[in-house]
């Protein structure tokens, strides 16, 4: 089966990574439900906590493109095994996903695993929980 073009997009994004401190380049590519595509890489900083993940960059590009629902997300890193999105990024992805959003976990040679978002982050918290909260608390 031929490789999804989103893999090459994520890999090209990883090659743009600015990661001189961790030396761990990461790339991310997103396809939205309308078919639009966006990508991002991790961008580190001498003040370490200010660095941003590849997924955050791709999501910011998607929002700037006027899109809000992720159908497929590809994440690529160079470690052995499955380089899955970090905990913070799982929550970032959650904001713009459905339970069926497909998460493609990649290494430099190709896709290593595919899972639904709900498999990656079961029982997750999202925007609809806030909508359900009604007027639980008085404003001061
Ligand atoms: N990183 C990502 O870009 N995405 C993840 O989901 C995991 C971690 C980046 C952050 C940092 O620049 C480097 O990988 C090492 O943690």
From TrEMBL:
Domain of life assignment: Bacteria
CDD domains found in the cross-reference section: cytidine_deaminase (cd01283)
Coiled coil: none
GO molecular function: cytidine deaminase activity; identical protein binding; zinc ion binding
Keywords from the named record: Hydrolase, Metal-binding, Zinc
Residues at the active site: 55
The keyword Coiled coil is assigned to this record: no
Catalytic activity field: cytidine + H2O + H(+) = uridine + NH4(+); 2'-deoxycytidine + H2O + H(+) = 2'-deoxyuridine + NH4(+)
Pfam families reported in the protein's UniProt record: dCMP_cyt_deam_1
UniProt record, GO biological process: nucleobase-containing small molecule metabolic process; pyrimidine-containing compound metabolic process
Name of the top EC class for this enzyme: hydrolase
Domain CMP/dCMP-type deaminase: 1-128
Enzyme Commission number(s) of this protein: 3.5.4.5
Binding residues for Zn(2+): 53, 86, 89
InterPro entries assigned to the protein according to its UniProt record, in alphabetical order: APOBEC/CMP_deaminase_Zn-bd, CMP_dCMP_dom, Cyt/Deoxycyt_deaminase, Cyt_deam_tetra, Cytidine_deaminase-like
Gene Ontology CC entries for this record: cytosol
Binding positions (substrate): 42-48
Cofactor(s) needed for function: Zn(2+)
Function of the protein: This enzyme scavenges exogenous and endogenous cytidine and 2'-deoxycytidine for UMP synthesis.
Family, as annotated: Belongs to the cytidine and deoxycytidylate deaminase family.
Name used for this protein in its record: Cytidine deaminase
Native source organism of the sequence: Aliidiomarina halalkaliphila
Lineage, top ranks: Bacteria, Pseudomonadati, Pseudomonadota, Gammaproteobacteria, Alteromonadales
């Amino acid at each position: 089966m031929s490789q999804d073009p989103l893999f090459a997009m994520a890999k090209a994004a990883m090659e743009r990574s600015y990661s001189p401190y961790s030396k761990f380049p990461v790339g991310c590519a997103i396809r939205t439900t309308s078919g639009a595509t966006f990508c991002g890489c991790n961008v580190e900083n001498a003040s370490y906590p200010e660095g941003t993940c590849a997924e955050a960059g791709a999501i910011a590009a998607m929002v700037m493109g006027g899109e809000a629902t992720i159908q497929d997300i590809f994440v690529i890193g160079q470690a052995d095994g499955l380089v899955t999105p970090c905990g913070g990024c799982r929550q970032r992805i959650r904001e713009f996903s459905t339970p069926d959003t497909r998460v493609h976990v990649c290494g430099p040679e190709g896709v290593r695993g595919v899972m639904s978002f709900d498999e990656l982050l079961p029982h997750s918290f999202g925007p609809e929980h806030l909508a359900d909260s009604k007027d639980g608390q008085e404003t001061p």
